[in-house]
Amino acid sequence: MIKTTNPYEKIPVKVFNNQRQASLWIAAEIAQIIKQKQTQGAPCVLGLATGSTPIQVYKELVRLHKEEGLSFHNVITFNLDEYFPIPKESLHSYWHFMHENLFNHIDIKKENIHIPDGTLIKEQIEDFCSYYENLIIENGGLDFQLLGIGSTGHIGFNEPGSSINSKTRLITLDRKTRADASSSFYGIQNVPKYAITMGIGTILQAKKIIIAAFTEGKQRIASTVIEGGISSQYPATFLQNHKDTLFVLERASAQGLTRYQAPWLLEAQGLKGELQIKYDLNTAKKGVIWLSQKVGKSILRLQQEDYEDNALLELITQIGQGNCGIVNLTVFRELSQIITGWPAGGRPDKLPESYFTQKKAISKQKIIIFSPHPDDDVICMGGTMKKLTNQGHEVHVVYMVSGNLAVFDFDALRFADVLKETQNMIGGNGKEFYEKVRTQINEKKPGDVDGPDLAYIKTIIRRTEARSAALCTGVEEQNIHFLDLPFYETGKSQKKPLCDEDKKIVNDIILKIQPDYIYAAGDLTDPHGTHRVCLESILAVLPQVKEQLPNLTTYLYRGAWQEWELDKVTMAVPLSPDELYEKRIAIFKHQSQKDRPMFPGADSREFWQRSEARNKETARLFTNLGFVNYEALECFVQLDVLQQLGEL
Fold first, then answer.
1. Which tops the pLDDT comparison, 407 or 91?
2. Whole-Å CA distances, 414 to 46, 435, 455
3. Could you say which of 60, 82, 159, 394 is catalytic?
4. What is the pTM of this model?
5. Which end of the chain, N or C, is less packed with Cβ atoms under 10 Å?
């Protein structure tokens, strides 16, 4: 069994800076196992996973085959699972996924590929599952198993409650699992209710296992599985008993671990040399906020014994010269300075009530708000947008992708009907266009790409909603821009890689506007990964842009899918009850996303409800730290700070 020196981590963990580095390392590990087996003249039996986690691993394996001669002639594969029922040719089948991302590009023998069969009739499944189990055994068992992890802690499709001894079988999918998959199936109603999956007992027979979790969205479940107790409610925790399992994370998904949340606790366990904690202001903020929340006291009420009892005595020594009051006051003052009602500066006076007035800033700034989808701007920072326009700044909103995938067909048809009725009065071919849209809807099967007229009308719906919402926050119409970045326009949930054309479009709009401030989405856990690609396009051009705009300041916002950790926040903008209500009204302008959005993720709340809840919760957390009881707070992190922390 692999040993871990970290007393909190019950599965060995390897953390990389980003997903690409982690994926390249995993691919190299797989390649090494294949080569070792080749030198022995033996077959290499691999258990393979699907989903977003292994895509870059498979891409690197293909590269190793094509550019470095890695052969798969001796490889036998067994996939973890498959939806049921589902035809092999479906874009959503794992048979299609594996062939598109790996098998079609390497020299593996077709007879060596094994994937659970989603085309069987139910009466055949039990016999097939026994056959699948026996086939793995006949081939000598799995030399290596690659796993991802679901938000419920499932591995394969072994849902909560699965037995440690379970074998390959038909399983009913948890609603949360189906909700997580709904973004690929264009709605939960299209996600199959069943799947055939290897059992946990089958997986645990593998000689070596690597389980990977990437992105901020996997933070909570990764820390639960790695540091929590073994429980059938989190099936991945059974891996704690496996003799050779490694959990691979990137920095974003690892942040929930104690080594990042409270590294001083590990230092107290004698791991100081391994951790090398630097006791600076950032550590002080993190430590004091953590301590305040743990003991339930406001910052200025923390006492010496609170620090001593929670392994933070060194913080007092390094930062407070042995006096906890100095540490308390230092952190309190630092946090006080990040709360401001003037997000672009230019505050005309120092009166507290100026937070909630419409006084103009003494200096006018140019601001770009980059919104990945057409509603991210108002969901995440609608209150701040209203403040910026009220204070007289020149605010530009740049919508990066069309977001047309997120419109229901019935909404598109209704919109085409409005166009038809309008053109009956003013003249035009509205009826002809309506019939085209209706035909394309009727002929479309679940998962098919929208026809051109249907895609166009959905784009127009999102565009007009975005314009209405931006105008509602005070943005002038000429300052509303739509980029329709090419990487997004595939008509599918899987997008094209970011290309030079995308970067050029982003670069050109920045240089055209010449902003003093940029606000961009740091909310990177949206279902299709669009936010991440949009941010990458901005980060790619910023170094060149800053040569011409050296004073440019960039902030990242969140709110639709997650919120910033308090110790990272560099600006918190308070909202009054009226301002929070005005933000809600702006979000309501996105009628196609109201009540039941196409891609809600696992959260059943509407986006305005999520946003308000997060803004109010942030205000409550600040109140508990000892600050004014604001109605709500929108939080931002300066890009430079995240880069200095090594988190971007």
1. 407
2. 50, 12, 14
3. 159
4. 0.88
5. N
